[in-house]
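Protocol step 4 of 6: structure prediction from sequence.
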Amino acid sequence: MAAKPEDVSTAPTEGAGLFSGAGPEKQPEPNPVADSADKKDDGDAVDSATAAVADLSVNEKKEEAKPTEVSPEVTAPAPEAAPVAASSDAKAEPSTVTPTQGPIWPETAPDHPLTKFYDAFEALTTEAQHNEVYGIELSKSKPFHTKLILQKFLRANQNDLDKAKSQLLDTLKWRKEFDPIKAARETFPKNKFDGLGYVLDVEGVPESPNKKDIVTFNIYGAVKDNKATFGDLDGFLRWRVGLMEKSVQALNLPAATTPIPNFGEGPDPYQGFQIHDYLQVSFLRRDPLVKTATNKTIEILGRHYPETLSRKFFVNVPVVMGWLFNAMKLVVAKETSKKFVVLSYGNQLAAELGKGVPKSYGGERGELAECAEGMKME
């Protein structure tokens, strides 16, 4: 999951969900080494394949565990840096408001999609009666950061202005109702969600120009009781969205100073990585509760967290399931397939993300419970 230009990370968003893998059309996620010009049908294929793999029984454990081009100045902030939420009933400010001093977005032509989007966003915030996205207040007084958010929605929709406006309006209404920033601060039942998710800042990611990158870990094997964890769908979704929002907060977008490139002209530096760990999880059964949670998570995060995920890693995946993923890669665009990596063993992750990951993933740091940040537990 990149954040501020001098402190950016390349964690959710858009991963889609705890048991998901959203495609670019739902949650476009340009890779630090891949562009975001993926097609919608490729994204649908990715969603279907990853969701299918996710429909597993987390109750049934295996008997044996397996052995164990972004702007160069972009680096990632510490995960604890949390943005300040805008008032849920905030209204669009008048276009005559004088912009405050700060970073300057490169000038765009009158017919440029971003120019048109910037001229039209106030009507959307007025209609939604909300103007906050990812901790940033959309306002003419804050042109740089407002354009940063608008650019994400444009890239997510391949510069289709009408689709970008529709997605932003849906997201504004959803954020007002759901209040994901509050969810990120809430306390959850330990017996349901303890050890299931973590956010970690990692240094030294191979080929990454960032000083730090944000990584979100989803630990499927930590689920002890399907009914307890997934039986209350609303409760599960608040936990899962809270984790996603926490990873986005770690990107520290309100402190960003580097513009996001236009669609098709380079990767979005403000994204993160997601890890989906299937250690000791059976792939033999399809639990309806897990399937329902998977689908709803994909729907919510795919719609409301565009351009927040750079790459998604599926680790400790049985070899036979790895074949499924590899086969899926043959039918999607090359740039799309680059964003999804399947590893049969957890300790192979260090080769992808460096030694800053925990020892169980081949790195040099302590385990997640020791070095990463999770959700608050009762």
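Step 5 (inspection) to follow. The beta strands are 132-133, 136-137, 187-188, 197-203, 212-219, 272-277, 309-315, 340-343, 373-374, 376-377.
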